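Please predict the structure of the following assembly.
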Amino acid sequence: MGTKQHQAAILLVVSRIPRGQVASYGQVAELAGLPGRARLVGRILSRLPDNSNIPWQRVVNARSEISFARDSDAYRRQRQLLEQEGVFFSGARIRRQSHWQPQ
DNA sequence: AATTTGACCAGTA
DNA sequence: CTACTGGCCAAAT
């Protein structure tokens, strides 16, 4: 099993997260058939080109927060994208109703 | 080649 | 709620 296939599996899962909802890194790894490999998900997303159509902003950490520093541009960018598509926040936390629950 | 780092996480205390 | 542990592993140092 090479990284190429892992990446394809991960990006497929991310592309399926519905607009207005989020999934955690661990959840994405699990659904991609890679349990325990949340960090791999983060690493793959960090390498996406700027022009990518993958909805990377819908992946957040297990505490239901954006994983970038609150004062970073990356944080503000991700948060704006999520709020634009209807994700609800309570402070830094994303509300449960905005969490993806695939069958 | 060895060590550290990182868009992480579940379990435990 | 916070703190710490051990698990994960490719890329950067």
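Residues 24-26, 29, 36-43, 45-46, 56, 59-63, 66-68, 74, 78 of chain A lie near DNA strand B (CB under 10 Å from a C1'). Residues 3-98 of chain A form a domain with the Arc Repressor Mutant, subunit A fold (CATH 1.10.10.10).
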